[in-house]
Specification:
This protein is mainly beta. The protein has 7 helices and 45 strands. It has a 22-stranded antiparallel β-barrel.
Length: about 800
């Protein structure tokens, strides 16, 4: 009953807001061109032009749920990497990963996405930089360097951006090289020896030829102490000794540090309105300690009666493995993550005629990532395990778009897309199962060097029809064909034949292959009641590509572990409004998702191995189609400018749903009564006021931001083969504050900021508990504590 009341109340609020907006909007003339004329005036609420439908449109004219943030708003919020954008976007969650996942990001929109970096799996949120697709979660924690805007598209974008945008898409657009010479330099100093340096320069080389170069360097100490257990507990009952090289304070390293640098250069040839060609190259380097993980669950009965929990901001994880099995001597895996990547792209636009435009986007990207793991997160490394990972990735893509018009009433786009990618995933795993503690029972030690190949091809088309000045009908279709093959290499550490208690060596040389195709479509109707009010309704589909099980323990799990795409049918209605002489912008949307063949980790691989359900004697680490479900939610975004100098922005979102079917393979980990997505509620609020100081003293702008995330499930823990109750991270409200002084010419700015103002302690959404059933430990990444910083920026 409480659930029903909550839902009904929000629907009433949505309906009331819609009715009020329509009433205000219908009171003015109902002509679409009036909206454009109004937009051409000096806007009260900031106007952003987006290209979500492959053509330039005002945000308020686009019948999609879009959160669009321009460079000035990013700067005022001090958002410098992509993961920070989620705080102000409804039903969006971007989480910087770490630990077992390296330099990657979990991306979810409306409860749909992916967190596993392995190239065998596909992301559920498409990420694009300057219309170039980023195919993996690895390397996606990008610095927001010299951006023009960010577009967060919520809901499936199957016809517009293709496969793997089933939840939505995040599109970053860099500032283009332009006429004139200009530049910006910026320096930041803050907590834990934080140093950020940024610079941008724009050059006009000659008439019609421009260049732009940008660079960033970020360095900051970590905030979780990695403690040498033997040093801190010299008389421990397990006999763990301290390392002779450990400092006197017993702190081996600081986890969660930053050490990131990048550079991007663009050359633009724009001799006329009919030719615009931009060639861009970029390079990124990151070398830091692993993410700030701490022990978040422990079962001392499996750890010799010892609780290895260290504290809120410390860990006893060691990345150390003693001699044993194939390890002829003790060794350390790296407690660091190193990422190095570069890419080049070409974006050519040719105006063939006044009504016909061709766009060709070509890109190549390559990266390497190396990181180590401590799976049990304890100093007693005869439990759990440790791993070394080295991932190489290459990606090529080509997209062609032809945009045209038929008269004044029809806009159309047709195009094609192709990509080819190759990964080689080298790993050395050392997994030691012990029963009881201290008595080696099973050693699973192997070396993998797996090549993964994938490609996809697509053809798409969109038609935008204006039957009247106020009405628009949009239809789109896309056909995608995809292929993936994964070859498993399972050898001994010296490259020889692997002998192990699980039979993992039998996988060596086997290949799993997935092939599939899919048709996506979209139909949308929008009507502009007045220059102030646009309403729309959309039905669309999307899918996340199928694939193969990346971490099988048996040959059957590998061969039988292919899985189908997950698919979505989405129904959405929305209202976009600019009210009170455009001093108030309120956008509302409601959606229903019919979600099928959901891809999730399963807890029982019996179906893959050919055993009866629940009788599989082997470990399981497979992704499979877990079942079907439904989701529904409501979203609101507000931007207000009530008086000169005062800006307010806010968002509120609610999502709920349920499982309709659980596949047999997933019944060990899921229940039909489990929530299909959490958190239910998200919200944000930001306010700033620009006050002129007079006497040529410039201005001062204080800003305050709040973000709220409701409680969020982190799954169940497995103990003695039994799944425990659902566990949750509690709700969290975070606050940030910033004050900025600018001189009268606004070419010099000094800012002071505080992030996590009230110093809240919280875990990030995902927890690593893969070894809890065996060793009784799990760990989570902890959020950043309160931090301050001072920034000075100079424009030329």
């Amino acid at each position: 009953m409480a659930q029903a009341n909550r839902t009904t109340s929000f629907i009433r609020l949505f309906a009331a807001g819609s009715t009020a907006a329509l009433a205000l909007g219908i009171a003015t003339p109902s002509f679409a061109q009036d909206a454009q004329a109004q937009a051409d005036q000096a806007p009260t609420t900031g106007e952003i032009v987006v290209t979500a439908q492959f053509r330039e449109q005002r945000l308020q004219d686009t019948p999609l749920s879009i959160t669009a943030v321009d460079a000035s708003l990013l700067a005022s919020r001090n958002q410098t990497d992509i993961s920070q954008i989620a705080a102000q976007a409804p039903n969006v969650q971007l989480t910087q990963m770490g630990g077992a996942f390296g330099s990657s990001m979990a991306a979810y929109i409306r409860g749909i996405g992916q967190y596993d970096f392995n190239p065998a799996y596909e992301p559920g949120v498409g990420i694009y930089v300057d219309d170039v697709y980023y195919a993996t979660l690895t390397g996606s924690v990008m610095d927001l360097l010299d951006l023009d805007r960010v577009e967060v598209l919520r809901g499936p974008q199957g016809t517009l951006t293709g496969r793997n945008s089933i939840g939505g898409a995040i599109k970053l657009f860099s500032a283009k090289p332009t006429e004139g010479n200009s530049g910006t330099v910026e320096a930041t100093y803050g907590s834990r020896q934080r140093v950020d340096l940024r610079a941008t320069a724009n050059f006009e080389l000659t008439d019609g030829l421009y260049a732009r170069i940008s660079g960033v360097f970020k360095r900051q100490d970590g905030y979780v102490d990695q403690i040498d257990y033997g040093c801190a507990n010299p008389d421990n009952e397990l006999g763990i000794g301290g390392n002779a090289s450990t400092p006197a304070d017993c702190v081996v390293a600081k986890l969660g540090e930053k050490n990131y640098s990048g550079i991007r250069g663009s050359l633009r040839y724009n001799p006329s309105d009919t030719i615009d060609w931009i060639v861009t190259g970029d390079y990124t380097y990151e070398n830091r300690t692993n993410a700030a993980g701490v022990m978040s669950a422990t079962d001392p009965s499996k750890t010799g009666g010892v609780d290895f929990t260290c504290g809120k901001f410390c860990t006893y994880a060691s990345w150390y493995m003693p001699e044993g099995g194939q390890a002829t001597q003790a060794y350390y895996n790296p407690n660091t993550t190193k990422f190095e990547g570069w890419g080049v792209s070409s974006n050519l636009t040719v105006g063939i005629s006044d009504s016909l435009k061709l766009q060709a986007i070509t890109a190549y990207r390559k990266y390497n990532q190396i990181f180590g793991t401590d799976d049990d997160y304890t100093p007693y490394s005869l439990i759990g395990g440790s791993g070394f990972n080295d991932l190489d990735f290459k990606f090529f893509s080509q997209e062609l778009r032809l945009n045209g018009q038929v008269g004044d009433n029809i806009d159309w786009t047709i195009g094609g897309f192709y990509n080819n990618q190759t990964s080689v995933y080298f790993t050395r795993q050392d997994i030691r199962y012990i029963v009881p503690i201290g008595v080696p029972s099973l050693f699973l030690q192997f070396q993998g060097n797996d090549p993964i190949k994938a490609n996809s091809k697509a053809a798409f088309g969109t038609v935008i029809f204006h039957p009247t000045e106020a009405m628009t009908v949009t239809g789109g279709i896309r056909y995608t064909k995809e292929h993936k093959d994964y070859t498993f290499v399972r050898q001994a550490w010296d490259g020889g034949t692997l002998t192990d208690p699980f039979g993992v060596g039998a996988l060596d040389g086997s290949k799993a292959v997935y092939d599939g195709d899919k048709v996506d479509w979209r139909l949308s109707l929008d009507y502009r009641f007045s220059p102030a009010v646009l309403a729309y309704a959309t039905v669309s589909t999307g899918f996340k590509g199928g694939g193969v099980t990346a971490r099988p323990f048996t040959k059957n799990q590998a061969i039988n572990g292919t899985f189908d795409p997950e698919t979505l049918h989405a129904y959405e209605v929305g209202l976009k409004t600019d009210l009170f002489d455009r001093r108030l912008r309120l956008n509302l949307s409601g959606f229903y998702n019919d979600y099928k063949n959901i891809q999730l980790p399963i807890g029982d691989c019996s179906a893959l191995d050919g055993f009866e359900p629940g009788t599989d004697p082997f470990p399981c680490a497979a992704i499979q189609n877990a079942g079907d479900g439904e989701m529904y939610g409501l979203e609101a975004e507000l931007s207000a400018h009530p008086v000169e100098g005062l800006d307010i922005d806010a968002s509120l979102s609610w999502i709920d749903g349920k499982w309709k079917r659980i596949d047999t393979a997933a019944q060990g980990a899921l229940r039909v009564t489990d929530p299909i997505t959490t958190p239910a509620w998200r919200g944000s609020f930001g306010i700033q006021y620009k006050a002129l100081l007079g006497n040529n003293a410039g201005s001062i702008t204080p800003r305050f931001d709040l973000s709220y995330t409701g409680k969020q499930t982190i799954g169940r823990l497995i103990n003695s083969g039994e799944f425990g109750p659902l566990q949750y991270n509690p709700s969290i409200t975070l606050a940030n504050a910033r004050v900025t002084w600018k001189n009268e010419d606004e070419n010099l700015a000094v800012s002071f900021e505080v992030q996590n103002l009230f110093d809240k302690y919280y875990y990030l959404p995902l927890r690593f508990a893969a070894v809890y059933a065996f060793v009784g430990t799990a760990y989570s990444n902890v959020g950043r504590p309160r931090e301050w910083a001072v920034t000075v920026q100079k424009k030329f």
